[in-house]
Design goal:
Blueprint lengths: L1 H15 L36 H12 L3 H6 L3 E2 L3 E2 L12 E3 L17 H6 L2 H17 L4 E3 L22 H16 L4 E7 L12 E3 L2 H8 L1 H8 L5 E4 L3 E2 L2 E2 L4 H11 L5 E3 L8 H6 L14 H9 L5 H17 L20 H14 L1 E5 L13 E5 L24 H10 L4 E5 L5 H6 L7 E6 L8 E6 L2 E2 L15 E8 L5 E8 L5 E6 L2 E6 L8 E7 L5 E8 L8 E6 H4 L2 H9 L2 E7 L19 H11 L3 E6 L15 E4 L7 H9 L29 E2 L5 E4 L8 H7 L16 E7 L3 E3 L4 E9 L5 E10 L16 E10 L4 E8 L1 H4 L1 E3 L4 E3 L3 E8 L7 E8 L1
Amino acid sequence: MQNLRNISSQSVFRAVFCIPFVALAVFGIAVSPVPAGAQTQVPALSGPVPDSPAIEAEAHAILAKLTLDQKVELLGGVDNMYTYAEPSANLPQFKMSDGPLGVRSWGPTTAYAGGASLAASWDPELARKVGEGLGRDARARGVNFLLALGVNIVRSPVNGRDFEYLSEDPYLNAHLAVPYIQGVQSQGVSATVKHFAANNQEYDRHNVSSDVDERTLRELYFPAFEAAVKVAKVDAVMNSYNLLDGVHATQNAFLNLKVLKGEWGFQGLLMSDWDATYSAIGAANNGLDLEMPYAKFMNRKELLPAIKDGRVKEATIDDKILRMLRVALRYNWIGPNARPQTVDSLSLYSLADRAAALQGARESITLLKNENHALPIDASKVKTIALIGPDAYPAVPGGGGSSQAQAFEPVSILAGLTSLAAESGANVVYARGLPQVNDIFSKTHFEGDAQIETFANHEFSGASVKSHQAQINDLKPAMWDATDPNPRSLRYTATYKPKESGKYLLLVAASGEDSFSVKVDGKQVLDQPHREGQIPLSTTIELTAGQPIHIVADYVPHTPGVRLSLGLAPESSLISPEALRLAKMADVVVLSIGFDADTESEGYDRTFELPWGQDALIDAIVAVNPKAIVSLTAGGAVDTRRWLDKVPALLQTFYPGQEGGTAVAEVLLGKQNPEGRLAVTFDRTWQENPSYNFYYSKVEADGIPHVKYGDKLMVGYRYWTTTGKHALYPFGYGLSYTTFKFGSLSVPQTVKVGGTVDVSFDVTNTGSVAGAEVAQLYVSEPAMTGAGAKVPRPERELKGFEKVRLAPGETKHVTLSLNARDFSYWDEATKNWKMDAGKFLIHVGDSSESTPLEASITSVE
């Protein structure tokens, strides 16, 4: 049944979104340390069965056994990761786990290259393999619902959760989400696509309203969810924290009733994100089926009176229960064919899944710069490699928050590079290069004590209690804590006298929702608003030896106690002497820099700049050894302006999962040809990103902070190609150790409106080593002239791709299919998709800005 179901789903996928799935080939020069027989040792598992009259009858029979009180009780979770059990109806608890990078809620697990890394692979078959691995990992732990995959569009590089999501393009997201979900569900586990919808920022996520016009929603922010529902038949959807057009997602009738359950025909369970429900009646009447992690609103106290007086119909409650029951019966979690969800023969430590994690890391690592063939490093000629930087050790498999998976044996870049280099006789030496954050605070000495005024309010007004202390060093990292019932604000004043002239790092950190602002000599230099979470903030200031500066820090704690730290240090003192010595004596340097789980995470946005001190580290190392290769860990673009022109090579690793150290080493030493391609545009600055002027919110008359999506369709490469400007690195871009050529484009002259068309072309490996290329097809409808587009459209949009692996000199003929949806836009007048009659352009190449093959095609009535 499952095979037939998958075939049917793929057929629909081609009809609606139109791209063929590519058979996965093994990349010839990569050697896996995982035993070849690992895959054959995995027991076969079955996925959900199709809905049937028998399932419907059984669901109604169970519903009939429940009292109204029991039904309402089932609408909320318990114990953080379970649904409510009702023994009188033989309903057990259903177990959940966070995802999508691993089954992370129940101890150590496999940590995959997911989200941004998976998108950089451009490989649907890899997505399916990762999904299957996650499904097995879930079954080994008795998990029913995996809370993954996140498919929100990467709109801005500073969104703290970008690393969990996929790309800036809805077509690519859809074509990776579908096989991922099908892979999870084929193992008897319900996937949960999230966060529905327009969750494109983490700052103030419980309160902000994403205000998006319908055409933009339909063309950019909905398609991956639509594919998950219509094609992958996902059995659970999770609403987002944010409001959409002024209404919280969990009680948004347009999202949940009109689109999801109405137009798309979603038959599964709609759950809230954790603590993302804000109204009992609003959520109950507008589509939410399950409130997690407990029934804060949708409980008997709130809903029973509303049902009694008719504000909520009992039939509405019944529909929610039936949805849960149907999902459980499809997977045989309950009913006459019920089977245990835990599969004891599945290992918690899986070699097969470790192989999938390694493959994901290998396919995602993206080479962005390679001047004078700095890479790969020839370990037979290089005697000493200096590995320097905070991300070299320990391993950084993923970012922070609910996706953070604890791997059994995560491989750091230090371990991976040392082991692989030793095979060729090369030696790897290592230094972190930078101090730990608390070292900055503990070693900062002011002129006299810092003075503190404590006010009994948040406004720094009225009488204060004065105190003093030698240092401002009270940081206690925490994300979510209880609110202080006694509001306070603290003003710190201190004098700092520099001992040397030059650039100084000013570093300030607090925790959770604490807020602060810092002034130096009356000028504000740092500001942390009251939001859900934060990372240390820093700035660079020029100081003169012996000339003191006056510092004022205004701090408003959200919880009891004090959690503020402030420190200064000359940049020259940040870089360890050991790192400089090692870099100077080495034949080549690998700088492992970027973010980690503490600096890029759910719950707050990250900085576009690298974390504190890292720009200075790169400057210092390059000054003593210009043969410095940068390996960058980040969910997307960062500010590279200070050092990019000084280094010969840049390798973007995203967050490569538990096997990242092995894969990075293989790429650095030429054992693996880099094959990742950017799934997000890399901007030079945050200010040049098209979302910059429309990203942060403004509180309006309704008291709600609104984020106006004034960038509309101009997200990522759509903006750059439409304006004719050029980003630092375009969408789809990535270098290889070989070269490729495109040719022999064949496009029919005409296509009927509503019809389909095949586009074919050749891709040739013109270099000397085996490699992988991602062939990309973009469609344009020329501007509103003559028979051209009737509405403004982006200059080009991705509508096809295929990953092609080729031996040296090999050519592959590629055929990609396009259908009416690929030529269409959302017509606001008819509230439907519309394909114009007229001229279209087909572009084929290796990035959004490199399409050497172009042809026109005319659609006719």
